[in-house]
Write a structure and sequence with these properties.
Layout: H1 4-10, E1 16-17, E2 25-30, H2 31-45, E3 49-53, H3 55-60, H4 63-72, E4 77-80, H5 83-91, E5 98-100, H6 109-114, E6 118-121, H7 124-137, E7 140-145, H8 160-172, E8 176-182, H9 194-212, E9 219-223, H10 225-230, E10 238-239, E11 263-268, E12 271-275, E13 280-281, E14 287-288, E15 293-298, E16 315-318, E17 321-326, E18 334-339, E19 350-355, E20 362-363, H11 364-371, H12 375-380, E21 387-391
Parallel strand pairs: 1-21, 2-21, 3-4, 3-10, 4-5, 5-6, 6-7, 7-8, 8-9, 9-10, 19-20
Antiparallel strand pairs: 2-11, 11-19, 12-15, 13-14, 15-18, 16-17, 17-18
The structure holds pyridoxal-5'-phosphate.
Pyridoxal-5'-phosphate is lined by residues 53, 55, 101, 184, 224-225, 240-244, 250.
Protein backbone atom coordinates (compact mmCIF):
# COMPACT_ATOMS: atom_id res chain seq x y z
CA UNK A 1 0.00 0.00 0.00
CA UNK A 2 2.80 2.37 0.86
CA UNK A 3 4.09 4.17 -2.14
CA UNK A 4 0.94 3.58 -4.18
CA UNK A 5 0.18 7.26 -4.46
CA UNK A 6 3.72 7.99 -5.53
CA UNK A 7 3.55 5.31 -8.19
CA UNK A 8 0.30 6.67 -9.57
CA UNK A 9 1.65 10.20 -9.66
CA UNK A 10 4.85 9.10 -11.26
CA UNK A 11 2.97 7.89 -14.32
CA UNK A 12 2.58 11.53 -15.19
CA UNK A 13 5.62 13.64 -15.57
CA UNK A 14 5.29 17.26 -14.59
CA UNK A 15 5.39 18.37 -18.18
CA UNK A 16 3.22 16.99 -20.93
CA UNK A 17 5.24 15.41 -23.67
CA UNK A 18 4.04 15.66 -27.22
CA UNK A 19 5.14 15.19 -30.77
CA UNK A 20 2.92 18.08 -31.89
CA UNK A 21 5.10 21.05 -32.62
CA UNK A 22 4.55 24.74 -32.12
CA UNK A 23 2.47 24.78 -28.96
CA UNK A 24 2.26 28.20 -27.31
CA UNK A 25 4.84 27.46 -24.62
CA UNK A 26 7.43 24.77 -25.10
CA UNK A 27 10.40 23.18 -23.50
CA UNK A 28 12.58 21.59 -26.15
CA UNK A 29 15.06 18.94 -25.10
CA UNK A 30 17.92 18.25 -27.48
CA UNK A 31 18.69 14.55 -27.11
CA UNK A 32 21.82 14.91 -29.22
CA UNK A 33 23.13 17.26 -26.55
CA UNK A 34 22.36 14.63 -23.88
CA UNK A 35 24.25 12.02 -25.92
CA UNK A 36 27.16 14.41 -26.40
CA UNK A 37 27.29 15.28 -22.69
CA UNK A 38 27.30 11.67 -21.58
CA UNK A 39 30.16 11.06 -24.02
CA UNK A 40 32.07 13.98 -22.49
CA UNK A 41 31.45 12.64 -18.98
CA UNK A 42 32.52 9.14 -19.98
CA UNK A 43 35.85 10.63 -21.10
CA UNK A 44 36.26 12.53 -17.85
CA UNK A 45 35.45 9.33 -15.97
CA UNK A 46 38.45 7.57 -17.46
CA UNK A 47 38.13 3.92 -16.49
CA UNK A 48 35.23 4.49 -14.11
CA UNK A 49 31.63 3.65 -15.01
CA UNK A 50 29.03 6.38 -15.43
CA UNK A 51 25.74 6.38 -13.53
CA UNK A 52 23.49 8.97 -15.09
CA UNK A 53 21.36 10.66 -12.44
CA UNK A 54 17.79 11.05 -13.73
CA UNK A 55 15.96 11.96 -10.52
CA UNK A 56 13.17 14.56 -10.57
CA UNK A 57 12.08 13.40 -14.02
CA UNK A 58 15.58 13.79 -15.36
CA UNK A 59 16.02 17.29 -13.90
CA UNK A 60 12.74 18.03 -15.70
CA UNK A 61 14.10 16.90 -19.09
CA UNK A 62 12.13 13.61 -19.10
CA UNK A 63 13.70 10.70 -17.21
CA UNK A 64 12.69 7.97 -19.65
CA UNK A 65 13.89 9.69 -22.81
CA UNK A 66 17.11 10.86 -21.16
CA UNK A 67 17.78 7.39 -19.73
CA UNK A 68 17.45 5.69 -23.11
CA UNK A 69 19.87 8.15 -24.68
CA UNK A 70 22.33 8.13 -21.76
CA UNK A 71 22.50 4.33 -21.75
CA UNK A 72 23.11 4.31 -25.49
CA UNK A 73 25.87 6.92 -25.11
CA UNK A 74 28.17 5.47 -22.48
CA UNK A 75 26.30 5.43 -19.17
CA UNK A 76 25.85 1.98 -17.69
CA UNK A 77 23.62 2.70 -14.70
CA UNK A 78 20.90 5.10 -13.59
CA UNK A 79 20.37 6.91 -10.30
CA UNK A 80 17.09 8.24 -8.89
CA UNK A 81 15.80 9.17 -5.47
CA UNK A 82 12.53 7.26 -5.03
CA UNK A 83 11.31 3.74 -5.69
CA UNK A 84 8.46 5.25 -7.73
CA UNK A 85 10.96 6.97 -10.03
CA UNK A 86 12.82 3.70 -10.49
CA UNK A 87 9.67 1.69 -11.21
CA UNK A 88 8.64 4.17 -13.85
CA UNK A 89 11.92 3.52 -15.68
CA UNK A 90 11.44 -0.25 -15.36
CA UNK A 91 7.88 0.09 -16.73
CA UNK A 92 9.40 1.85 -19.75
CA UNK A 93 11.47 -1.27 -20.44
CA UNK A 94 14.78 -0.07 -19.05
CA UNK A 95 16.78 -3.04 -17.73
CA UNK A 96 20.06 -1.33 -16.71
CA UNK A 97 20.95 -1.20 -13.01
CA UNK A 98 18.95 1.49 -11.19
CA UNK A 99 19.82 2.75 -7.72
CA UNK A 100 17.30 4.72 -5.63
CA UNK A 101 18.55 6.40 -2.49
CA UNK A 102 15.90 8.44 -0.72
CA UNK A 103 12.94 6.45 0.61
CA UNK A 104 11.24 6.59 4.00
CA UNK A 105 11.66 3.38 5.99
CA UNK A 106 7.97 2.53 5.52
CA UNK A 107 8.31 2.51 1.73
CA UNK A 108 7.21 -0.44 -0.37
CA UNK A 109 10.66 -2.04 -0.64
CA UNK A 110 9.08 -5.27 -1.90
CA UNK A 111 8.15 -3.54 -5.15
CA UNK A 112 11.75 -2.40 -5.57
CA UNK A 113 13.09 -5.91 -4.95
CA UNK A 114 10.63 -7.44 -7.40
CA UNK A 115 11.67 -4.94 -10.07
CA UNK A 116 15.35 -5.57 -9.38
CA UNK A 117 15.89 -2.00 -8.25
CA UNK A 118 18.92 -1.44 -6.05
CA UNK A 119 18.11 0.19 -2.72
CA UNK A 120 20.33 2.77 -1.04
CA UNK A 121 20.18 2.06 2.71
CA UNK A 122 20.86 4.79 5.22
CA UNK A 123 20.15 3.56 8.78
CA UNK A 124 19.62 0.42 10.83
CA UNK A 125 15.88 1.03 10.86
CA UNK A 126 15.94 1.44 7.12
CA UNK A 127 17.95 -1.75 6.68
CA UNK A 128 15.47 -3.67 8.84
CA UNK A 129 12.60 -2.45 6.67
CA UNK A 130 14.45 -3.72 3.62
CA UNK A 131 15.27 -7.11 5.19
CA UNK A 132 11.63 -7.49 6.28
CA UNK A 133 10.53 -6.97 2.70
CA UNK A 134 13.28 -9.33 1.51
CA UNK A 135 12.05 -12.12 3.80
CA UNK A 136 8.69 -11.85 1.99
CA UNK A 137 9.70 -11.41 -1.62
CA UNK A 138 13.34 -12.41 -1.91
CA UNK A 139 16.84 -11.04 -1.64
CA UNK A 140 17.35 -7.27 -1.93
CA UNK A 141 20.29 -5.70 -3.70
CA UNK A 142 21.54 -2.84 -1.56
CA UNK A 143 24.10 -0.08 -1.70
CA UNK A 144 25.11 1.60 1.54
CA UNK A 145 24.87 5.35 1.61
CA UNK A 146 27.38 6.53 4.16
CA UNK A 147 27.46 10.05 5.57
CA UNK A 148 31.00 11.36 5.31
CA UNK A 149 30.24 14.94 6.29
CA UNK A 150 27.30 16.27 4.32
CA UNK A 151 25.19 15.55 7.41
CA UNK A 152 22.10 14.98 5.36
CA UNK A 153 21.19 11.53 4.04
CA UNK A 154 23.46 8.54 4.73
CA UNK A 155 24.34 6.26 7.67
CA UNK A 156 25.48 8.45 10.56
CA UNK A 157 28.99 7.74 11.82
CA UNK A 158 27.93 6.87 15.37
CA UNK A 159 25.59 4.21 14.00
CA UNK A 160 27.95 2.88 11.38
CA UNK A 161 29.73 0.04 13.28
CA UNK A 162 26.41 -1.41 14.47
CA UNK A 163 24.91 -0.88 11.02
CA UNK A 164 27.74 -2.91 9.46
CA UNK A 165 27.15 -5.78 11.94
CA UNK A 166 23.48 -5.84 11.00
CA UNK A 167 24.27 -5.65 7.32
CA UNK A 168 26.80 -8.51 7.57
CA UNK A 169 24.19 -10.60 9.38
CA UNK A 170 21.50 -9.87 6.76
CA UNK A 171 24.01 -10.73 4.08
CA UNK A 172 24.85 -14.10 5.71
CA UNK A 173 21.13 -14.80 5.98
CA UNK A 174 20.80 -14.23 2.26
CA UNK A 175 18.36 -11.37 2.73
CA UNK A 176 20.55 -8.76 1.09
CA UNK A 177 23.32 -8.67 -1.41
CA UNK A 178 25.67 -5.74 -0.89
CA UNK A 179 26.52 -4.26 -4.25
CA UNK A 180 28.08 -0.93 -3.45
CA UNK A 181 28.86 1.95 -1.15
CA UNK A 182 28.50 5.62 -1.86
CA UNK A 183 28.55 9.05 -0.32
CA UNK A 184 27.79 12.60 -1.42
CA UNK A 185 29.98 15.70 -1.23
CA UNK A 186 29.15 18.99 0.47
CA UNK A 187 31.51 21.24 -1.50
CA UNK A 188 31.95 19.54 -4.87
CA UNK A 189 31.35 22.79 -6.77
CA UNK A 190 34.41 24.27 -5.03
CA UNK A 191 36.83 21.65 -6.32
CA UNK A 192 39.71 22.49 -3.98
CA UNK A 193 37.73 22.94 -0.80
CA UNK A 194 39.50 21.11 2.06
CA UNK A 195 36.25 19.40 3.13
CA UNK A 196 36.44 17.30 -0.02
CA UNK A 197 39.64 15.63 1.15
CA UNK A 198 38.16 15.03 4.59
CA UNK A 199 35.13 13.37 3.01
CA UNK A 200 37.31 11.30 0.70
CA UNK A 201 39.33 9.98 3.65
CA UNK A 202 36.21 9.18 5.66
CA UNK A 203 34.77 7.39 2.64
CA UNK A 204 37.90 5.27 2.20
CA UNK A 205 37.85 4.49 5.94
CA UNK A 206 34.18 3.48 5.74
CA UNK A 207 34.95 1.03 2.95
CA UNK A 208 37.82 -0.43 5.01
CA UNK A 209 35.52 -0.85 8.00
CA UNK A 210 33.03 -2.73 5.84
CA UNK A 211 35.75 -5.01 4.49
CA UNK A 212 36.92 -5.64 8.06
CA UNK A 213 33.58 -7.25 8.89
CA UNK A 214 33.62 -9.38 5.77
CA UNK A 215 31.53 -7.18 3.51
CA UNK A 216 32.76 -6.61 -0.02
CA UNK A 217 31.19 -3.66 -1.85
CA UNK A 218 31.83 -4.06 -5.58
CA UNK A 219 30.99 -0.56 -6.74
CA UNK A 220 32.05 2.40 -4.67
CA UNK A 221 31.23 5.93 -5.80
CA UNK A 222 31.49 9.48 -4.52
CA UNK A 223 31.54 11.95 -7.45
CA UNK A 224 28.65 14.08 -8.65
CA UNK A 225 29.06 16.16 -11.83
CA UNK A 226 31.46 18.69 -10.35
CA UNK A 227 33.79 16.05 -8.93
CA UNK A 228 33.57 14.04 -12.16
CA UNK A 229 35.01 16.92 -14.20
CA UNK A 230 37.43 18.37 -11.65
CA UNK A 231 38.63 15.63 -9.29
CA UNK A 232 39.86 12.43 -10.98
CA UNK A 233 41.11 11.29 -7.57
CA UNK A 234 37.47 10.87 -6.53
CA UNK A 235 36.29 8.71 -9.40
CA UNK A 236 36.56 5.32 -7.64
CA UNK A 237 34.55 2.63 -9.56
CA UNK A 238 31.81 4.87 -10.87
CA UNK A 239 30.82 8.54 -11.14
CA UNK A 240 27.31 9.87 -10.58
CA UNK A 241 26.78 12.99 -12.68
CA UNK A 242 23.39 14.66 -12.87
CA UNK A 243 23.40 18.29 -13.91
CA UNK A 244 26.26 17.83 -16.40
CA UNK A 245 24.23 15.21 -18.29
CA UNK A 246 21.82 18.05 -19.10
CA UNK A 247 24.71 20.22 -20.28
CA UNK A 248 24.81 22.65 -17.38
CA UNK A 249 28.29 23.39 -16.15
CA UNK A 250 28.78 21.99 -12.65
CA UNK A 251 31.42 24.65 -11.94
CA UNK A 252 30.28 27.63 -14.04
CA UNK A 253 33.27 29.77 -13.01
CA UNK A 254 35.59 27.23 -14.61
CA UNK A 255 33.85 27.07 -17.98
CA UNK A 256 31.59 24.67 -19.84
CA UNK A 257 33.83 21.56 -19.80
CA UNK A 258 32.62 20.96 -23.36
CA UNK A 259 29.03 20.39 -22.20
CA UNK A 260 26.00 21.57 -24.20
CA UNK A 261 22.79 22.72 -22.45
CA UNK A 262 19.96 20.48 -23.64
CA UNK A 263 16.89 22.53 -22.67
CA UNK A 264 15.38 25.47 -24.54
CA UNK A 265 12.38 27.29 -23.10
CA UNK A 266 10.36 29.42 -25.45
CA UNK A 267 6.90 30.76 -26.25
CA UNK A 268 5.11 32.12 -29.28
CA UNK A 269 3.96 35.71 -29.50
CA UNK A 270 0.18 35.98 -29.14
CA UNK A 271 -0.19 39.71 -29.67
CA UNK A 272 1.84 42.70 -30.87
CA UNK A 273 0.52 46.17 -30.05
CA UNK A 274 1.46 49.82 -29.79
CA UNK A 275 1.76 51.53 -26.43
CA UNK A 276 1.87 55.32 -26.25
CA UNK A 277 4.49 57.24 -24.28
CA UNK A 278 3.48 57.57 -20.63
CA UNK A 279 1.21 54.51 -20.63
CA UNK A 280 1.88 51.80 -18.03
CA UNK A 281 2.21 48.14 -18.95
CA UNK A 282 0.73 45.21 -16.99
CA UNK A 283 -0.40 45.00 -13.34
CA UNK A 284 0.56 47.93 -11.17
CA UNK A 285 1.96 49.78 -14.19
CA UNK A 286 5.44 49.02 -12.89
CA UNK A 287 6.80 49.89 -16.30
CA UNK A 288 5.84 53.13 -18.02
CA UNK A 289 6.62 53.58 -21.71
CA UNK A 290 9.28 56.30 -21.96
CA UNK A 291 8.27 56.96 -25.58
CA UNK A 292 5.83 55.55 -28.10
CA UNK A 293 6.68 51.90 -28.43
CA UNK A 294 5.49 48.47 -29.52
CA UNK A 295 5.22 45.50 -27.19
CA UNK A 296 4.82 41.76 -27.68
CA UNK A 297 2.74 39.57 -25.39
CA UNK A 298 4.02 36.07 -24.52
CA UNK A 299 1.66 33.47 -23.04
CA UNK A 300 3.95 32.19 -20.25
CA UNK A 301 4.08 33.36 -16.67
CA UNK A 302 4.92 32.31 -13.16
CA UNK A 303 2.56 29.33 -13.42
CA UNK A 304 4.81 28.09 -16.22
CA UNK A 305 8.10 28.63 -14.42
CA UNK A 306 9.08 32.27 -14.94
CA UNK A 307 9.51 33.40 -11.34
CA UNK A 308 7.77 36.63 -10.48
CA UNK A 309 11.06 37.80 -8.96
CA UNK A 310 12.50 37.88 -12.50
CA UNK A 311 10.75 41.21 -13.13
CA UNK A 312 13.19 43.50 -14.92
CA UNK A 313 15.98 40.92 -14.84
CA UNK A 314 15.75 39.05 -18.12
CA UNK A 315 15.60 39.56 -21.85
CA UNK A 316 14.05 37.46 -24.53
CA UNK A 317 15.53 36.57 -27.93
CA UNK A 318 12.83 37.72 -30.32
CA UNK A 319 12.87 39.08 -33.86
CA UNK A 320 16.62 38.65 -34.14
CA UNK A 321 17.51 40.56 -30.96
CA UNK A 322 17.60 40.25 -27.21
CA UNK A 323 14.73 42.41 -25.99
CA UNK A 324 13.92 43.39 -22.43
CA UNK A 325 10.90 41.88 -20.69
CA UNK A 326 8.98 44.69 -19.03
CA UNK A 327 6.51 45.00 -16.17
CA UNK A 328 5.40 42.29 -13.83
CA UNK A 329 5.57 38.60 -14.51
CA UNK A 330 1.91 37.55 -14.34
CA UNK A 331 0.51 34.08 -13.79
CA UNK A 332 -0.03 33.45 -17.49
CA UNK A 333 1.86 36.08 -19.43
CA UNK A 334 4.75 38.48 -19.76
CA UNK A 335 5.34 41.47 -22.03
CA UNK A 336 8.44 42.30 -24.07
CA UNK A 337 9.38 45.77 -25.34
CA UNK A 338 10.14 45.94 -29.06
CA UNK A 339 11.08 49.63 -28.90
CA UNK A 340 11.38 51.41 -32.23
CA UNK A 341 11.57 48.11 -34.08
CA UNK A 342 7.86 47.28 -34.45
CA UNK A 343 8.11 45.50 -37.80
CA UNK A 344 10.58 42.95 -36.53
CA UNK A 345 8.05 40.78 -34.73
CA UNK A 346 4.73 39.26 -35.77
CA UNK A 347 2.16 37.25 -33.90
CA UNK A 348 3.20 33.59 -33.89
CA UNK A 349 6.94 34.32 -33.77
CA UNK A 350 9.09 32.36 -31.36
CA UNK A 351 10.50 34.11 -28.31
CA UNK A 352 13.38 32.32 -26.61
CA UNK A 353 13.65 32.70 -22.85
CA UNK A 354 16.68 30.51 -22.43
CA UNK A 355 18.58 27.86 -24.34
CA UNK A 356 22.17 26.88 -25.02
CA UNK A 357 23.09 30.47 -25.90
CA UNK A 358 24.21 29.67 -29.45
CA UNK A 359 21.53 31.84 -30.99
CA UNK A 360 22.10 34.83 -28.74
CA UNK A 361 19.46 33.81 -26.20
CA UNK A 362 20.08 33.76 -22.47
CA UNK A 363 20.99 30.52 -20.71
CA UNK A 364 19.59 28.81 -17.62
CA UNK A 365 22.78 29.97 -15.93
CA UNK A 366 21.97 33.61 -16.82
CA UNK A 367 18.53 33.16 -15.32
CA UNK A 368 20.05 31.63 -12.21
CA UNK A 369 22.40 34.59 -11.80
CA UNK A 370 19.50 37.01 -12.28
CA UNK A 371 17.47 35.21 -9.65
CA UNK A 372 20.21 34.49 -7.15
CA UNK A 373 19.87 30.73 -7.53
CA UNK A 374 21.45 27.86 -9.47
CA UNK A 375 20.62 26.59 -12.96
CA UNK A 376 19.43 23.30 -11.43
CA UNK A 377 16.44 25.19 -10.00
CA UNK A 378 15.79 27.06 -13.23
CA UNK A 379 15.40 23.94 -15.39
CA UNK A 380 13.47 22.09 -12.67
CA UNK A 381 11.10 25.05 -12.40
CA UNK A 382 9.66 24.94 -15.93
CA UNK A 383 6.10 23.67 -15.64
CA UNK A 384 2.45 24.58 -16.01
CA UNK A 385 1.22 24.74 -19.60
CA UNK A 386 4.66 24.16 -21.02
CA UNK A 387 4.73 21.25 -23.45
CA UNK A 388 7.94 19.29 -23.75
CA UNK A 389 9.21 17.83 -26.96
CA UNK A 390 12.41 16.33 -28.19
CA UNK A 391 14.74 17.13 -31.03
CA UNK A 392 17.90 15.56 -32.35
CA UNK A 393 18.87 12.56 -34.43
CA UNK A 394 18.93 10.59 -31.22
CA UNK A 395 15.23 11.24 -30.55
CA UNK A 396 13.85 7.70 -30.57
CA UNK A 397 11.51 7.05 -33.46
CA UNK A 398 10.92 10.71 -34.15
CA UNK A 399 11.58 12.76 -37.23
CA UNK A 400 12.20 15.73 -35.02
CA UNK A 401 14.10 18.46 -36.83
CA UNK A 402 17.09 20.14 -35.27
CA UNK A 403 16.37 23.19 -33.23
CA UNK A 404 15.70 26.09 -35.57
CA UNK A 405 17.23 29.46 -34.90
CA UNK A 406 14.91 32.27 -33.90
CA UNK A 407 14.28 34.61 -36.79
C1 LIG B 1 21.56 14.63 -7.23
C2 LIG B 1 22.65 13.73 -6.85
C3 LIG B 1 23.76 13.53 -7.70
C4 LIG B 1 23.98 14.33 -8.96
O1 LIG B 1 24.43 15.61 -8.59
P1 LIG B 1 24.85 16.70 -9.70
O2 LIG B 1 25.42 17.81 -8.90
O3 LIG B 1 23.60 17.07 -10.40
O4 LIG B 1 25.82 16.04 -10.58
C5 LIG B 1 24.68 12.58 -7.35
N1 LIG B 1 24.55 11.88 -6.20
C6 LIG B 1 23.53 12.07 -5.34
C7 LIG B 1 23.47 11.27 -4.09
C8 LIG B 1 22.55 13.01 -5.63
O5 LIG B 1 21.55 13.21 -4.76
Amino acid sequence: MNGTIGVVNSQHSALRTTSVHDPAVECIVDLDAIAHNVGVLKKFAGGADVMSVVKADGYNHGAIEVSHVALASGASELGVTTIAEALRLRAAGITAPILCWLNPSDSDFGSAIEANVEIGVTSIKHLHAVTNAASDVGRATVTVKVDTGLNRNGVASEQYPMFLEELAKASRQGLVELRGMFSHLAHADEPYHPTIDVQRQRFVDSIEQARAVGLDPQKVHLSNSAATVTRPDLHFDMVRPGVAVYGLSPVPDEGTFGLRPAMTFRARVVLVKKVAAGEGVSYGHDWIAPSDTTVALLPAGYADGIPRAMKGRYSVMLGGKLRPAIGRVCMDQVVVDLGDDPGAVSEGDEAWFFGNGDHGEQTAHDWAEAMGTIHYEVVCGIRGRTVRHYVGDTAAGSKAPSLRSPR
